[in-house]
Write a structure and sequence with these properties.
Layout: H1 2-29, E1 35-37, H2 49-57, E2 60-62
Length: 63
């Protein structure tokens, strides 16, 4: 019986830590910039690569 209680307590602690760190990640995502500056030649990218990237990740790409 003690072994089962230890397992339950361990699972609860693990769940608690998971929830704490998952909320921390979402808070950090709000700090990210919505603009990505890329220093490269435009010819290196496909015709729709930049537009597809902007649409998928919700950022503006500056070349």
């Amino acid at each position: 019986m003690k072994k089962i209680k230890r397992i339950h307590i361990g699972l609860l602690i693990g769940l608690f830590l998971f929830l704490i760190f998952s909320f921390q990640t979402t808070a950090d995502e709000k700090k990210l910039s919505k603009v990505l500056n890329v220093y490269n030649w435009e010819e290196y990218f496909g015709e729709t690569t930049i537009a597809d990237f902007e649409k998928k990740f919700g950022v503006k790409v500056n070349l």
